[in-house]
Each structure stands twice: as structure tokens, then as C-alpha cells.
Amino acid sequence: RGVVPFHGAQQAGITTDAQDRLAFAAFDVSAGVSRDQLRELLVGWTAAAARMAAGQAVADDAAAPHSPPRDTGEAIGLTAGNLTITFGLGPSLFDGRFGLAGRRPAALADIPPLPGDNLDPLRSRGDLCVQACADDPQVAFHAVRNLRRLAQGTAVLRWFQLGFGRTSTTSSSQDTPRNLMGFKDGTNNVKREDTASLDKHVWVGADGDQAWMRGGTYVVTRRIRMLLESWDRDFLLDQEQVFGRTKTSGAPLGAAEEFDPVPLTTRGADGEPVIPADAHIRLAAASTNGGATILRRGYSYTDGVNQETGQLDAGLFFIAFQRDPRTGFLPIQRRLAASDALNEYIVHTSSAVFAIPPGVRDPKDFWASGLF
Ligand code: HEM
User: Is the distance from the beta carbon of residue 228 to the nearest atom of ligand 1 less than 6 Å?
Assistant: First the structure.
């Protein structure tokens, strides 16, 4: 019940129906760790992840009452909750420490500084990442916690982000959720049924420059704080013009239903475009970005109160998958950063990019085995 298959051509947690909860962690490999030790970590992590995805404990501890339990225990009695654990490698892993410099795909390049960024370096980047998604927050937390535990002595947590509500749909059978600004989010996302679009925009094809990444993808994460106090004082009409959609129904302005085509070329009686020139959905649309298309799979987050301002520290933990961030996230974000009406109400506070290798084929295989 609630089990998403762990093994397959692609990793789960990308086109899998977006679950409700997120626990996303970035790790740095510790100084002095060898390539063999890194390989061992990935073998151990993969085995543990396969067990947890099946709703099992990392290990059966009953036989060893005089050792610390090898599973931390908080998921005992819970279902797998559609847990997916998705693994990735950051650009810094290819800096020469492990003799992997020649294996770095060109697409795995740090995201350059972008206008409006206010990034916290301690919440950005990382050698490795683990995205755990589940319909139960404790199941997602348990997955990351136990992988961290297995990494003791080999890798340390660099940053950790919890997300409490999905802000996307990755399948046409899912309802569109709402983000913290109260708008439906994910309407015009790439859906898993659209395999032609996934092959074109998400999965690395046979022409990928590194054979070990073929069938994989790349993830870009951005922690985007929403200035909710300002947003909540804005008029409804202005809020709708910021996105270019109606708040309640999610329909594009100038259209009737949520999934109606976005009327990008229609003008109103006043001669102005019904979707304003600086509306988020105009500037983010593939048709206005030379076809740049990404699979969004982000989550709402809150980390309490921002102690400097006394305001809510909450927003969108943006997650997007694409076959090459240089032709996916980057051109879209450059355009948004320059003129999105939404910029008045958001601040990007962290940034990371990771290569997501293809799926683990069977129980003998392991994450990123093609690298070793
Ligand atoms: C569409 C919200 C950041 C890319 C949308 C929609 C909403 C939304 C409500 C309309 C519904 C939909 O089609 O999903 C937000 C919020 C953001 C944010 C609140 C920040 C806090 C970003 C970023 C990117 C992005 C950083 C990429 C760099 C897109 C794309 C679409 C979209 C590609 C679909 C446009 C279309 O084809 O109609 N977003 N978004 N968004 N957003 Fe964002």
C-alpha cells in the first residue's frame, strides 16, 4: 500500500505524482574520503533507500539488543506513504578530489549569480543531494535522517529543507494545489503522460556528453522567500495581474477555465494585452522563451519567523527538472529576474544544481554506478 517502485530506468520522485511532503537535503563529502569510500556510501545508501521505499526499516534490529538500532525507528508502523528518494550529485563533487573531473557533464555547471539573488551560501550548493517525498512528513524525514546516519564519517549535512505542501502537479489525474500566495500552481506544468515532452525537455538523451548520465536529468532548487505581509496587502486585481491568472478558478485572464490556453496575443478594449507584459505566466511561458521547458515539482515551506524583520520566513522551495539547466531553468529565470511583476513579492535565498543519474536498474545496481 502506497509503495512507489524504487527500481527502474529512471529514478522515482521526478514524474511520480507529486506527494504532499518534502524533505530535501544536501550533503558535503568529508575531507580525506577516497573514491572507494564514496562508492561504498552510495552502495549502502541505495540499499537503505530501496528498503525504506518499500516501507521497510533500514535494517532488522531485533537480533542486536546491545548495539544502537540501525534504523532510527520513527517510521515503524507507518506505511511507505508513496515515499520516493531521489539522489543527485553537485558540480563540486567533480572538482578533482575523487578523480572524477573528466566525468563532469557540461550541463552540470553552478548556476551563475542572477539579478535579485540574495543567496545564503550555507543553504546553497552541495556535493550530493537527496530528495525524499512522501504523503507523510515523518516518513520523508525518516528517510533523510537514516541516510545521514549511514553517512557518518563519510559525508555531512550541508543544508536541509522541509516542505509541507506540494505546489505542482506532475500528472493530469492530480488536482492542482495552491501555493502560499493562494494561486493554483502547476496548471501548465509538464505532465508525466506527455512522454514526448519529457523525452525532449527532461531526460538526458543518447546525445548526452557523459554516458553515465543518459536517461538521467538535472535538478535546480531555489528557496524563494515570499514577502507575504506585502502580498497580503495587495489588491486582488493586482495579485491576478502579477500572475496573469484568476485567483479562485486559476483560469488565465481573458479565458474561462483553468486549463484554457493562455491568450498571450489577445488585447482588451483598452488596447493593452489581457495577460500583462510583466505577468509571471507570460514571461515564464515556453512560447516566449524560445521553447525552454522545465518540470516543476516544488513545495511550500516555512522556517518560522525571520528574526531580522519579524516577518514570516515562508515561501516556495522551487524544484525543477530538465535535461540541461543552461537551456531550461537559466533562460527562464534570467527573463523572470529582469521583469517579472512577482519580483516585488519574492526573494531567492538559496540555489543549487545537481545531476540526477538514471534509475537503479535492480538490487545489484546502485546510485550513479555508471561513474565507478
Ligand atoms: C507558472 C507561481 C517561480 C516557472 C506559474 C503559475 C503560478 C506560479 C501560480 C501559474 C500556474 C501554472 O501554470 O503552474 C510561482 C511562484 C513562484 C514562481 C509563487 C515563486 C515564489 C517560478 C520560477 C520559475 C517558474 C523561479 C522558473 C525559473 C514557471 C513556468 C510556468 C509558471 C514555466 C508555466 C507558464 C505557462 O506556460 O503558462 N508559476 N512561480 N516559476 N511558472 Fe512560476
Answer: no
What is the per-residue pLDDT across 180-238, written as a single tens digit (0 to 9) for each?
A: 999 999 999 999 999 999 999 999 999 999 999 999 999 999 999 999 999 999 999 99
Question: How many angstroms does the Cα of residue 280 sit away from the middle of ligand 1?
Answer: 7
Count the domains in the chain. 2
Measured in Å, residue 167 CA sits from the centre of ligand 1 at 10
CA angle centred on 201, ends 197 and 206, rounded to 5°: 105
Cβ of 18 closer than 6 Å to ligand 1, yes or no, is no
How far is residue 246 from each of residues 57, 179, 183, 241, 269, measured CA to CA in Å? 45, 14, 8, 8, 19
Whether residue 85 is found in the same domain as residue 183: no
Q: Domain check: are 181 and 299 in the same one?
A: yes
Q: Kindly state whether residues 217 and 339 are assigned to the same domain.
A: yes
Same domain, 133 and 27: yes
> Mean of the per-residue pLDDT values for the chain?
97
Asked whether residue 135 falls in the same domain as residue 256, the answer is: no
Structure confidence at residue 64 (pLDDT): 80
Give the angle 222-30-10 at the CA atoms, nearest 5°.
50
- Tell me if the pTM is above 0.95: yes
Residue 65: pLDDT band with limits 50, 70, 90: confident
Other CB atoms within a 10 A radius of the CB of residue 293 amount to 22
Would you state the pLDDT for residue 316?
Answer: 98
Ligand 1 centroid–CA 18 distance in Å is: 16
Same domain flag for 154 and 8: yes
List the grid coordinates of 248. Answer: 479562485
State the residue range of the domain holding 77.
1-60+71-100+124-163
341 found inside a domain: yes
ipTM at complex level? 0.99
Residues 151 and 233 in one domain: no
